[in-house]
Write the structure tokens for this entry.
Amino acid sequence: MPLSRRSFQSLCAAGAFSLLAASALAQTFPDKPVRLLVGAPPGGTADIMGRVLGEGLSKEFGQPVVVENKAGGAGMVALQELSRSSHDGHTILLAISGFLTEVPHAFKLPVDPMKAVVPIAELARTGLFFVGNNAVPATNLKEVIAHVKANPGKISYASYTAGTVSHTLGLTLNQRAGLDMTHVGYRGSAPGLTDVMAGHVQYMFDAPASVLPMYKAGKIKVFATTGPERNPAAPEVPTFAELGYREMTELPWVAMFVTPDVPAAAQSRLREGLLKVLALPVVRERWKDIGMAVPPTPAPTQQALIKTLQDESAKHAKKLADIGFKPE
């Protein structure tokens, strides 16, 4: 049935009102303090990044940005807190890509993170370092492999969270090199590295931000990086690919997430603010200091990030299936 003139005018008015409302939201958002949730304890890579970004966003938005550590449950504690909060963009979640691409395949979760959140912007990317206690009789990867084989059933490696790439890399190395290292999962980088330095576990896969201060202080050994290239912050450390283990190449990335139903205007303003903060020289220099690479320019779109997450999820599902890993 054809629209009457009055109906057509009403539709136009409604459309115009929606556009004005969205524009008004974009101009006024945020209008109260922003909660930045970090699914990791203080001291780790995610926590360091969250506090740097929180300070920058606070200046950009003119509102306080409060960083809250919500560690545990392979990221589910932070996700549940995000879900319980108002879905208006004033609560955001900083998480590593593996939270969506690996954890759901490693654990039986009550919800699917891939459906529960959407990425706003990529924040950084980097390979992990394979590190060891200073007392282990190894100075390179070849000697590490010999050490593990000489001590069957006695060697363990830590991950910053079970089910993430820091866990599955050890499984891959076990399979690829014929090792039997036992996995020990932790709630974050800091407690894992503490136990590595204390000798409670011998090895660990961890991010540069956590590793570099300990490495430069001579408190741990670093044998290789999973990045496709050597990390500029530690150029003497070879890549796994250089050493003949190309399957160990991984480049985890970190992003900011919100629930899918956050208004588009709020998502747009959050993304705009994040990209502005990431472009600041002080932030780029801080990322360099902690061994993180800033996102490429132009920054990947939200749709591109979603596609990357989907592709990586499929890849890691196959990897876990290939090594016979069963969800816990």
